[in-house]
Each structure stands twice: as structure tokens, then as C-alpha cells.
Amino acid sequence: MADKYKYIGPLYDFLSTIYGGESIHNCKRAMLCEEHVKPGDKVLIAGAGHGKDAIRAAEIGAEVTVVDLSKTMLEKLQKAFDKHPKDLKVNVVHADILKFEEYDKYDMVIANFFLNVFYKDTMLNFMDHLIKLTKQGGKFVVGDFAFPKGNVISRTIQKGYWYIAAIIFYFASDNAVHEIYNYPELMKERGLDITDARHFRYLGMNCYTSVLGVK
Ligand SMILES: C[S@@+](CC[C@H](N)C(=O)[O-])C[C@H]1O[C@@H](n2cnc3c(N)ncnc32)[C@H](O)[C@@H]1O
């Protein structure tokens, strides 16, 4: 299958920093703290990209598995591991996550800026699949654009901010262009208990959110 991130992949984290400052990176690592992850926990990261979250999870001492379809993204992730002062042990899988069937195995499954790549029906298939990979009592984490809230002006600005990114990635890597998903609601509808949600502001807007649901 063609690598959709062949051209934009090498620049992905750099563009994230231009677009969202540190708030995007902080959002990705939000739930990777001692409160939620213990050494030895099995953590799975779907569509890991350059792997900032994978590095944090490995630093905590989790057993980390990353799955990504893009060879370009995984090469950047491997370079980041190689540069790290510690020898981080991470299981890197080059595959379609839908074909990864280690069900009910993971203490934490993370989907950071991953589900927004898909149109709604497909996205829901991915979400259901990722929840199946999470073990009973385990945590499913989504870090992504926050569902717009506030008055009509702030909601319009937040939507505009999202659509700029969506349109860039539509042309760069054929990602979907759609409304911002309400992940906490969709997670609740799937029976998850939302026990933590953190928000990340940028340019005075509540742009990003990390939501943790317990299965
Ligand atoms: C928008 S990027 C997000 C990367 C990273 N999670 C981050 O927050 O920076 C989406 C990632 O999902 C990967 N991806 C897309 N479809 C996938 C699939 N079916 N299975 C595994 N990875 C996939 C892409 O290759 C890409 O690395």
C-alpha cells in the first residue's frame, strides 16, 4: 500500500509545533503519568507517528508497542529512539492496526491525533477495534482536537482552526475532512467510564483535549 505520509511525514512533528506550539505535544503525553501508567504496564499506541508519546511511556517503564502503517513515520520514530540517551525498548509494528488482533491485552491503548484521519463510519470502526484491544479495566485514551464549546464566535474560530489542518492534510495525505468529533460522548456511548480529561489551550482557544476512558 502507498505510504500516504511519504512527503509530509518527515515534517509532521515540525508542522505540529508551528501549528499548535507545545500544546499538541503536551496533549499527546497528557495521560502518560504515574497516576495512569505503572512500570511494566502494556501500552499500545495506534498510528504512533514520530512517537513522542511512545518515548514518554517507555521512560515510565511501560512495555510499549507502536503500530503504524507508514514506513516514513516509523523511520522518524526510530531516529527519535536512537537519539534518546536511554536504550528504550519499544516493539515497533509496521501494519494496519485493524489487522492487529491482540484483543483484551493492553493496560492502555492510545489514539493520539489518529481517529481524526478518518470519516465518521470508518473512525467508529477504528475506535471499536481499539477498545477491543484494551483489556477489561484498562484505559483507552484519545488525544485530539477538542469538541468546540463556548459562544458562537469561539466555536466558529475553533472549527476554522481545525478545518485549516484538515484541509492541509486532505491534500498532503488524503486524510478525511469532517466536523470535529465529540470523542468523550462516543467513548461513553461505547460503555467507557470517562475518569480524566485534560485540556490544552493555544492562541487563547481550548484547542486540544486528552480523554481517558476506563473499559
Ligand atoms: C495524523 S498522524 C498522527 C501521528 C501521531 N499519533 C501523532 O499524534 O503525532 C496519523 C498516523 O496514523 C497512521 N495510520 C493511518 N492509518 C493507519 C492504520 N490503518 N493503521 C496504523 N496506522 C495508521 C499514519 O501512518 C500516521 O502516522
Describe the structure.
The structure is a single chain. By secondary structure, the protein is α/β, with parallel strands linked by helices. The protein has a single domain, classed as Rossmann fold (3-Layer(aba) Sandwich). Helix content is 38%, strand content 26%. The protein has helices at 12-20, 23-29, 52-60, 71-83, 120-133, 152-173, 183-189; strands at 42-46, 63-68, 90-94, 106-112, 134-145, 193-202, 205-214. Strands 3-2-1-4-5-7-6 form a 7-stranded mixed β-sheet, with helices on both faces. Helix 3 links the parallel strand 1 and strand 2. It is globular and about 45 Å long. The model has no long low-confidence stretch (mean pLDDT 96). It binds S-adenosylmethionine. The site of S-adenosylmethionine has 18 residues, from strand 2. It is an enzyme of class 2 (transferase). Pfam families: Methyltransf_25. Its EC number is 2.1.1.222, 2.1.1.64. Keywords: Methyltransferase, Transferase. It comes from Litoribrevibacter euphylliae.
Note the total helix count.
7
Domain count: 1
CATH homologous superfamily classification: Vaccinia Virus protein VP39
First and last CA, distance = 33 Å
Q: How does the SSE layout of this entry go?
A:
Blueprint: H1 12-20, H2 23-29, E1 42-46, H3 52-60, E2 63-68, H4 71-83, E3 90-94, E4 106-112, H5 120-133, E5 134-145, H6 152-173, H7 183-189, E6 193-202, E7 205-214
Parallel strand pairs: 1-2, 1-4, 2-3, 4-5
Antiparallel strand pairs: 5-7, 6-7
S-adenosylmethionine (SAM) is lined by residues 5, 28, 47-50, 67-70, 73, 96-98, 112-114, 117.
